[in-house]
Amino acid sequence: MTAIVDLLLDPFDYTFMTRALAATLIASTVCALLSCWLVLIGWSLMGDAVSHAVLPGVVLAYIFGMPFALGAIVFGFLAVGLIGAVRNPGRIKEDAAIGIVFTTLFALGLVLISVTPSQTDLNHIIFGNLLGVSRSDLIQIAVLGAVVALVLIAKRRDLTLYAFDPTHAYAIGLNPKLLGALLLGLLALTAVTALQVVGIVLVVAMLIIPGATAHLLTDRFHRMLLIAPAVAIISGVIGLYVSYYQDTSPGGMVVLTQGIVFAIVYLFSPAHGVVTAALRKARPVAEVANA
Predict the structure, then answer these.
(1) How the protein sits in the membrane (predicted)?
(2) Which one of 12, 129, 188, 209 is CB 3.0 to 4.6 Å from 124, fit for a cystine?
(3) Is the CB of residue 206 less than 8 Å from the CB of residue 140?
């Protein structure tokens, strides 16, 4: 028993692991909450685009000594505007416009990183630096995470109606365009929240996998809002422990754990699992054969 307790507590003898755990729990929870709406609306590709497109905004904010969140929001909305401008139903479809805009802005961010003199390694913006989270980083993550979570909770009814039926939302006096803009702003803020944990490259995984996993486990949205954060938190804790004892990338292991959980649910979900459905179909056949 003592050995198990030591196994669980040993990593947190180090301050950097305690901060890493706190940052992971906050970012995982916020990303998981937002992912429920992104999955329902079908904004997975948009989440990928915005999370990558904020990179130059974050770098420019660093250069000019401004908050990362400000640069991220500006470039998040710039990306959406550019996608709308490039999109041409007759020639350039939305998926192509998204791919063009987010890869171009992401490339701009990489170029800015390469030419920006800095005493710190800006590559952590791309790949994350979970074990290097400082006290000030943790405060920023906590503040941004709290802002996103509070707005999502306060506006959950309006956002849910927008996700399911924007026409009905408009009919009862809501502004679908404003709600969409609100989600995009929260998406940019969430990208910054998770940036320190997994980096820009893997943020999209944290924004999609928990919501997709929860969607396979329940058809009720209010349950999704509970299941998705639970999946993300459990995956985050397991991923951190495995990364510590196996000496692997902590951010990568957190996302890999989420992916493994999704794979298990995809195969064995009681209602929507592939293996479960196959077994359900095979049962009547077996009963007929034995009759």
Answers:
(1) Multi-pass membrane protein
(2) 129
(3) no
Cα distances (Å, whole numbers) of residue 135 to 9, 22, 101: 21, 11, 34
* Structure tokens, 80: 């959406």
Q: pLDDT-based confidence at 242, cuts 50/70/90?
A: very high
3-state secondary structure of 203: helix
| Placement of tokens 């074990």 in the chain | 131
* Per-residue exposure over 186-211, b if at least 16 CB sit within 10 Å of its own CB, e if not: bbbbbbbbbbbbbbbbbbbbbbbbbb
- The amino acid present at 240, given as its one-letter code, is L
Quick: pLDDT tens for 62-85: 888 888 778 888 888 888 888 878
Do 211 and 38 meet the contact criterion of CB atoms below 8 Å apart? yes
Encode 211-248 in three state secondary structure.
Answer: HHHHHHHCCCHHHHHHHHHHHHHHHHHHHHHHHHHHCC
CB count in 10 Å sphere of residue 90? 5
Task: Give the list of residues 6+ apart from residue 205 with CB closer than 8 angstroms, or none.
Answer: 198, 255, 258, 259
- Could you read off the pLDDT of 104-116 as tens digits, one per residue? 999 998 898 888 8
